[in-house]
Amino acid sequence: MHYNHSVTDEYEQYEDQFNPLHTDRQARRKRKPRLTHTPKKAVHEIVDELADETAELEGGFNTTYQPSRYEEGWLLNSLRPFYELHFIHDVLALVKGGKEASVYRCAAILDNGNAEPLLAAKVYRPRMFRQLRNDGLYREGRGVLSAEGHEVIERDRRTHRALKKKTAFGSQVAHTSWLMYEFTTLQQLYEAGAAVPRPVSASENAILMTYYGDEQIAAPILHQVRLEADELAPLFTEVLRNVEIMLQHGLIHGDLSAYNILYWEGAITLIDFPQVTGCHSNSNAYMILQRDIERICQYFAGQGLERDPATIMNYLWKHYVERRPQDVEADLSVLLAEDEG
Ligand SMILES: Nc1ncnc2c1ncn2[C@@H]1O[C@H](COP(=O)(O)OP(=O)(O)OP(=O)(O)O)[C@@H](O)[C@H]1O
Ligand SMILES: [Mg+2]
């Protein structure tokens, strides 16, 4: 796991410096001393300096994709571990740049247990180091995951204190935990046979996984697709099959909709799992699952397939949440004991 603080910090200084909303006096006073010590520098000089510093860090990792100066430092450093571990040798294109993460098409190295020529790298934006998504609703009942995907145990007082106080270290921990939830969920679901990307590797700032699409275009999201009439029922069933696998593992997607399902060559793939939450441990589980189911039904209704979300919700809740595997087992042993008696 590699994480280079200085580059991220520089990106933030840089972002602050050029953010037109950040011209108030208080914000300026808060800026790091390095910039306030050199007020006479022209903007282009600062940009060149930062670009030079990132160039030094590139160390042989040159990419076909030409990142903007804004993204260069954090992109190359986020993906460097994958390059060093021989998973990828090039970044080919930006698939989608978003508020919270950007996804890139990468050229894979065909060994290392990998047989796919292209891989997708989801790079979490450095902005998240400062401003985590309002994740309280989902975090309930979840532990904090370390970069290795292990739960940070309550005994680790330093980490928990930092999290509470929202120090820089604390927000790094929260950021990594958010990303590791996505990665460990992908691992779990992939092994369970769900239609999710195969997770290949994780760094503290990025996830490498199966890429859907070809050299020219990435798979569209379901929202952008007009389905054929004969695809509707099988694909709806396939979405539900995945929701059920998640529930069997005690999980709810939490942001399931036609925006987080890819469609490629007639098949669907569920993506975007950082907010995954527990169906037994989160007191908002009912509401979160209900919203997921409603959004899916809404998309399919728009395509011409009517399915009643309330009926489905009722079934799922009764079947997977109210009756946990251990409840079924307990019922069984009572039955068996009665038989014996
Ligand atoms: N494995 C993949 N293969 C191809 N494209 C992908 C893959 N994963 C994600 N994408 C594309 O990247 C987009 C963003 O990914 P994702 O939904 O995981 O991130 P996000 O957190 O929603 O980002 P944002 O909030 O910025 O939209 C997806 O809508 C999809 O277009
Ligand atoms: Mg998404």
Description:
With 341 residues, the protein is an alpha+beta fold. It is 48% helix and 13% strand. The chain contains twelve helices and nine strands. The strands form three sheets. Strands 1-2-3-5-4 form a five-stranded antiparallel beta sheet, with helices on both faces. A two-stranded antiparallel sheet has the order 6-9. Helix 1 runs antiparallel to helix 4, helix 7 packs across helix 8 and helix 10 packs antiparallel against helix 11. The N terminus is likely disordered. The site of magnesium ion has 3 residues, from loops.
Taken together, the total number of domains comes to: 2
Helix content: 40-55%
CATH topology of the largest domain: Phosphorylase Kinase, domain 1
β-sheet strand percentage: 5-15%
Task: List the uncertain runs.
Answer: 1-12, 14-38
Please report the distance between the alpha carbons of the first and last residues: 58 Å
- Structure classification: alpha+beta
Radius of gyration: 23 Å
Bound ligands, named by name, code or SMILES: adenosine-5'-triphosphate, magnesium ion
CATH class of the largest domain: Alpha Beta
Counting H and I runs of at least 4 residues, what is the number of helices? 12
Q: What's the total number of strands?
A: 9
Largest sheet: 5 strands, antiparallel
CATH superfamily of the largest domain: Phosphorylase Kinase, domain 1
